[in-house]
Amino acid sequence: xxxxxxxxxxxxxxxxxxxxxxxxxxxxxxxxxxxxxxxxxxxxxxxxxxxxxxxxxxxxxxxxxxxxxxxxxxxxxxxxxxxxxxxxxxxxxxxxxxxxxxxxxxxxxxxxxxxxxxxxxxxxxxxxxxxxxxxxxxxxxxxxxxxxxxxxxxxxxxxxxxxxxxxxxxxxxxxxxxxxxxxxxxxxxxxxxxxxxxxxxxxxxxxxxxxxxxxxxxxxxxxxxxxxxxxxxxxxxxxxxxxxxxxxxxxxxxxxxxxxxxxxxxxxxxxxxxxxxxxxxxxxxxxxxxxxxxxxxxxxxxxxxxxxxxxxxxxxxxxxxxxxxxxxxxxxxxxxx
Length: 337
Ligand SMILES: Cc1ncc(C[n+]2csc(CCOP(=O)(O)OP(=O)(O)O)c2C)c(N)n1
Ligand SMILES: [Mg+2]
Description:
Blueprint: H1 2-20, H2 45-52, E1 60-63, H3 68-74, H4 78-85, E2 103-104, E3 109-111, H5 119-131, E4 138-143, H6 150-161, E5 166-172, E6 175-176, E7 179-180, H7 181-184, E8 201-204, H8 209-224, E9 230-235, H9 253-261, H10 264-274, H11 279-301
Parallel strand pairs: 1-3, 1-4, 4-5, 5-9, 8-9
Antiparallel strand pairs: 2-3, 6-7
Helix pairs in contact: 1-2, 1-3, 1-11, 2-3, 2-8, 4-11, 5-6
């Protein structure tokens, strides 16, 4: 878990550097090697690592717009994921999805830029597992800012009514863009939502990977054993802006400083030391993680850009009339997608 968490943190720090390349001084969002928006998950690492430790490749995970730590923990190929973020042809979706639309069928991972939108596909995966009589489970991650979304609440209901092998994991980082949790919802503990659907709910109050691991073990075990869904809320923290370029002018300095104090990676390192793990072992783990990230980024930056002539390939399942897969320049005259 420690190595995975260091990988995820270093990944975000390196993407931050790459992202800013060429975008200054006027912050041109389309410039540089990573065009478009980028939501980094530094501070969320304990959640992905603690939960996904209990998952297999055949289990499904859906993540929100802040997905990298979860993708890494689920075992998504880091090189192809990085190529996707850099918009390269060898990316997971040939560079057409970008960082909010990572999709890897090899390990059943997907994410979406629409908040709470991972919940319905996760219950679909849970229903499929149940109908196929397998013991696969599905986990939907979402932010605390999404706990009043219809897609989430309807999914809780459906999962409960059909007793589906699904775990909902709410990552509470205290903020939804510039909106603190208490201004948008009356429940301090998002896991209370479970009560309305008569399913088990639990909250992990500290940014601690081991506590999240323990809570997720119970929840995933319950789903795998055929005992239905669980709602888990886990406390994480946001070390960076909502998206890259967010000046965070709405955020009190003390809040950011307090969040940084709650570093789950340092906490886990201390736990490891307390359990007799040598500093050199911890350091080697860090070095392996850093090397893996550097290798993925170097590889991705070397990959070819997609051919503009392929722009419409794989985009429409039923192309609008006038557009053929190989002739994107043709005039679009409407369609039924
Ligand atoms: C349905 C929907 N409404 C609004 C948005 C715009 N939006 C993007 S992220 C976000 C806040 C998400 O906050 P939270 O769920 O707490 O996740 P966090 O960013 O804190 O990880 C919003 C409102 C969206 N993507 N989808
Ligand atoms: Mg949030």
